[in-house]
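User: Show me sequence and structure for the first protein, then do the same for the second.

Assistant: Starting with the first protein.
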Amino acid sequence: METTLKRIILGVTGGVAAYKAAELARLLVKRGIEVRVVMTAAAGHFVGAATFQAITGQPVYADLWDARVANGMAHIDLSRDADLILVAPASADFLAKLAHGRADDLLSTLCLARDCPLLAAPAMNRQMWENPATRRNVDLLMDDNVELIGPAHGEQACGETGYGRMLEPEAILDAVDAYLQPKTLRGLNVLITAGPTYEAIDAVRGITNRSSGKMGYAVAKAAAEAGAKVTLVTGPTGLATPEVAETVAVTSAQEMLEAVEARIDETDIFIGVAAVADYYVLNPSENKIKKDAHILTLELAPNPDILANVSSLDKPPFCVGFAAESENLEEYAELKRKRKHLPLIVANDAKKAIGSDEVELVLLDDAGRHVLDKTDKATQARRLIDHVAKLYNAGNP
């Protein structure tokens, strides 16, 4: 996964979740990021400075009066070349310090004197998290543009269960990466279709396809990361719902069309990633069709072309199509793009892409072809959204 981070200050406060900060530091270093750890005095009761120094290869700081900083201004010097300050875990006490501008140790003073983004991953007992004082502090931090990552719900060290558990290091890393994506679609409404559709044959059988929905969900997530208000209209998948403004679950192509038409007037960009079934059964049975020795004949009729319906509107949004082909990939995709009057179409090899976590994409627009070399779908989705944003913003300066 791509990242623009180079240097990060990892603040570690007092709490049993401090042990997770060591793994977080390891993951950041593995990503090629220079990590400098700043600990509070309480953090030292849970994990030692030597651990972080061994993981990061950098000196660890805990003292506001650290003699290693020549000018005695560690709270200034440490943050000036940092791209981000991440406090994980962030205790209830430290959130209170941040909210009220207290600066009585190195980490709190450094956060107050920063000129880079500040993210915090809360970790505390569930009752501390739910306490009205903490809720007020959280509101103040949000007003001050301090981003909070988590907390999660789960079993806590005290034996209780609830919200307050620090997110796992991998989840924090993903959240940091998402937060730092360029907000190229800020303020825009993006409508995305994803997954397969399902056309009933009878009460238990139907016509569908092998689409997993992974690419569509990745595009929805990437668009949200880019600052868009995203509505995801999705067919049946087994995927976790991405954090977007609205998710609409549908089954059939007709239901997907109706969901799109109900929202299209407020849409700036429409991206049709869904693998919509081309046909539906004219007379599906309300009950299960019993098996016998006779040949079963189904009468099929063509489903509506959702993308064509949208692109043919009098004032269509910026439309992006997907073409999954098993042969003559670019030729067929370009024909589809011209037939539906699309500014951009995304071509991929159906035999290689469906169900896979990695994919190669070819973007076709008025300027020609743009190959996105094979990589994971999350990265490809971000690359695609970057291209969409450039085309859209060029036409809407």
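Switching to the second protein now.
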Amino acid sequence: MTIRVFLVDDHAVFRSGVRAELSREADMDVVGEAGAVGEAIAGIGAARPDVVLLDVHMPDGGGVAVLQGIGDRLESGPVCLALSVSDAAEDVIAVIRAGARGYVTKTISGSELAEGIRRVAGGDAVFSPRLAGFVLDSFTGRSPAPEPPLDPELDSLTPRELEVLRLLARGYTYREIAENLFISVKTVETHASNVLRKTQQSNRNALTRWAHRRRID
């Protein structure tokens, strides 16, 4: 069976990268894409996909607004899998409460994303490992873990720089990071340079130790 997939993300380059990754999967067909909430709601209604890959943060309301807009269709399909740079508990919980079937971050590999799509299409809930606890805590009434203390250097990083930092800390090469994030090697180098400057680290080894002390991996 071919899984019909619809992409919702306000970054056209990222959508192109995901489309290219999924085109390698024999059982998947990208049937549409959108970069804004209204466009997404209309496109999903017209394309009738099986799975919607849904960005959480967009200028005109984001993933929750899309889920609310297609709410009456969620009973019979499609299922929605959130795909975001954010791993904040409040973002995860908001989209799951709005009707998403899972939540993964954009550091996921192409093959892992394809498997996640298959699993939600088959009825499973799919989460990046550390995010599942947020959902369990929310729906069992437990208080989420306390927020970590303020870290000005870490807080100065943009979401994309934080993604690059995580992959650097895991030992990825610049080329591997570029492939994971669907950006050029030169762009990775620029982000890595910004991360070193903002964290006041002199080289990659020092940056990796800095990241591990903060449990960024």
